[in-house]
Amino acid sequence: EPEEVMASFNATKVGLERLAAFYSDLPLGIDERQIMGDKQNFVESLVYLLGMGKGKARGAKSGGLQAFQTWRTIALTTGEEPLSTESSTAGIKTRALELYGSPIPDERTASEVHQGLSQNFGLAGPVFIQKLIQKLKDDPELFQTDYKAIQEKLSDLNPDNISSHLAAVSLVCMADYYASQWIFGLDEKESFTQCLDLAETIMGQLETVSETDDATRAYEYFKDWVLEKQSYFGEGENIDFYGWIEPGYIYVLGTRFDKTMKEGGFSPRRILQDWSERGWIITKKEGNRVQKRISKYCSYKNKSVRVVAIKVEDFSHEKQIV
Predict the structure, then answer these.
(1) Closest-CA residue to 29 (of 46, 5, 54, 52)
(2) What are the tens digits of pLDDT across the range 39-79?
């Protein structure tokens, strides 16, 4: 019964973990994201927890460990606020598929569906599972073959999307393809066309690989920050001095860089490592270590300072405010 099986974000992490284990292979619905308010860390930890499919290791009173809570579920959440934010890590964004809009745009139809579901439920599921078992007996490889075909088709149509998103959407669309035939009576061709249309609608709302890449997002955030704080770069009258700009490079004090990355929700150490590997900053080899902060002479301070030297081609010397 829909109303009975729907959970809420107004729960502890342990409670939701045990609920997921109780449902095991059934979908888990969690309603009203906005109940959590600004507790973004809790929401993101929940995304990781549900994605792992295994609960926390806990000691038993009699010694040893309690049995692990496990599940294989699709968690469906709703809310007026998103699960992830601009500063969420790529790990969150690859695990969550966020879709925006009303499932049923017409309010009257939505009300009728809601009332109808409270009176009619538990009918389509058994039919679907019985058909599933029958098809598996006839051809044990059928679902793997169809899944691979749908995944390859979606990969060709959406080469820039995240592989984990493609895998999840392929699975859901394969189920939609079968349900269209077994439950709603559509023919095979129309079912396949509709499942691809559904997939394209979903993929069009999901972030691409570059949009979820932490290094790229931090790079764009940093450039926006420099434009906002440009009066602090160069020989200005500000007490605070952040660094200076030269053609093709931005030199920012190491401590200021760390603070800015943390304010944006990024790990300075991780970002410097990623930027170093991509050649986006100047590095210097000292023994066996690669130094990502270099010493550079600053005419304004009239001394050598430790800076992060970021390569930014679209910052010309004329943009510098001094």
Answers:
(1) 5
(2) 888 888 888 888 888 888 888 888 888 888 899 888 888 88
